Amino acid sequence: MVLERTYVTDTTDILKVFKHSVQQIGSLDYSQQQIEAWISSAEDIQKWKKNIANDYFIKAVKNDYPVGFASLKNNNFLDYLYISPNYQKKGIAQKLLNHLISIAKENKSDCIKTNSSKSALKFFLNNGFEILDTNILKIGGTSLENYKMILML
User: Which residues contact 146 (CB under 8 A, 6 or more apart)?
Assistant: First the structure.
């Protein structure tokens, strides 16, 4: 497994990883209505392309296929971290996070912030992130709970 920069041409594959991850892993912590609302954010393809083009966006690749991805916005905000369900618990998220931490440090950031889902909360806590607040995110008419977190570098 290798880490590679992600480009706009990778958008379709990235969105597949996103949708599969949210559907499979999110179902442990969120209702079907909440999962559908969460996945609906994939419909704004132009937003995803803009994020991929403008943020530090990387993918984990195994056998020429993306199995996970992550992004760092403004050198201090971890915006995305998703792993395909078949590749969960294999150290891929850790490798992606470690890489983003090194990028943040290289760019003299003193912290990394993120908004963690319930599903990823334990992972972030185990990596030294602290909960700052609980967020209620509204997507359409559906509410999803997540956690505003920080890791001091």
Answer: 115, 116, 117, 118, 134, 135, 137
